[in-house]
Amino acid sequence: MGYRTTERLPLIAKAPSNEGLYYDLYSHAAKQIGCQLTVVRSPKKRLLKMLKEGEIDFYPGFVFTPERANYVHFILNGLPGGEVGISLKSMEEVRDKQQLKGLTLIQSLGAPDFASGVDVNYYTKAELSIPEAIELLRKDRGDFYIYPRSTLLYYLKTHNSQDIKAHMDCCGGEQPLYLAFSSSRSTSLRQTIFTTLRIRLLAQQTSQPKQTKQALPINSKSNYYL
Question: Residue 212 needs a FRET pair 20 to 30 A away by CA distance; which of 75, 88, 92, 98 works?
Answer without folding.
Answer: 75
